[in-house]
């Protein structure tokens, strides 16, 4: 069976995910991407229009399955009644970590890319990321506020922002074990990591926002 030929557009997107995930947006030149993709600036302009537009396309492609799965899970939960904080947190976290599982060999690259861009130092880049994920993420924030009526809206928003940040750190592998350092010596599988992260976050919301 022949492997489908990778188009120039796909190569640019794949390389952009890898390079932006490793060096961030500002730390990655468009030339570095085009050289690695065996393309040129004209190809970027033709397919995307600019470096920022290339990033937006890469974010949109990477987030599409995550957004779809998060929307499906939340729709299902809300159709069944009033979901608990744990159900909402799990429905948010698991699709983000399943990036690694669903994309085979490229899973780690895509997850690292999303984790890096979601909390890029540049406000403009964070806004670009938010434009691709805000519609469904705002629903999750609203659902958590409804499920935690004893906490103030600002307190829930604070917990939600920290949930996003912790997930992004794991996606970007910023918390991956360092060989030879004290602590765990091997990377957790995504399934176990998701369970541990959900347990941690549920406790944080329960204890941290109820006082």
Tell me the series of helices and strands, N- to C-terminal.
HHHHHHHHHH
| Mean pLDDT value | 87
Question: What composes the largest sheet?
Answer: none
Number of helices: 10
In whole angstroms, how far apart are the ends? 60 Å
Percentage of residues in DSSP E strands? under 5%
Fraction of residues in H or I helices:
over 70%
Give unreliable regions as ranges: 181-186
SS content category: mainly alpha
Number of strands: 0
Could you write a compact summary of the structure shown?
With 211 residues, the protein is mostly helical.
Keyword list:
10 helices; elongated; mainly alpha; 72% helix; 211 residues; single chain
Topology record:
Layout: H1 8-23, H2 30-36, H3 41-47, H4 51-79, H5 85-97, H6 99-102, H7 107-118, H8 123-147, H9 153-171, H10 190-208
Explained architecture:
The chain is elongated and about 55 Å long. The protein is mostly helical. The chain contains 10 helices and no strands. The protein has helices at residues 8-23, 30-36, 41-47, 51-79, 85-97, 99-102, 107-118, 123-147, 153-171, 190-208. Mean pLDDT is 87; it is low at 181-186.
């Amino acid at each position: 069976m022949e492997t489908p030929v990778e188009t120039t557009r796909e190569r640019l997107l794949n390389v952009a995910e890898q390079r932006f995930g490793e060096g961030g947006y500002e730390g990655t030149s468009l030339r570095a991407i085009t050289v690695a993709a065996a393309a040129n600036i004209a190809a970027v302009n033709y397919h995307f229009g600019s470096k920022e537009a290339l990033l937006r396309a890469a974010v949109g492609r990477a987030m599409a399955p995550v957004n779809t799965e998060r929307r499906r899970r939340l729709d299902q939960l809300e159709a069944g009644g009033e979901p608990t904080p744990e159900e909402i947190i799990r429905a948010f976290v698991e699709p983000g970590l399943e990036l690694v599982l669903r994309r085979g060999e490229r899973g780690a690259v895509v997850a690292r890319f999303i984790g890096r861009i979601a909390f890029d130092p540049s406000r403009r880049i964070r806004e670009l990321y938010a434009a691709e994920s805000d519609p469904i993420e705002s629903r999750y924030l609203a659902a958590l506020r409804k499920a935690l009526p004893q906490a103030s809206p600002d307190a829930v928003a604070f917990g939600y922002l920290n949930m996003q940040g912790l997930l992004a750190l794991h996606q970007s592998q910023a918390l991956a074990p360092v060989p030879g350092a004290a602590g765990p010596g091997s990377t957790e599988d995504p399934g176990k990591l998701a369970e541990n992260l959900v347990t941690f976050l549920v406790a944080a919301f329960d204890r941290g926002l109820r006082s």
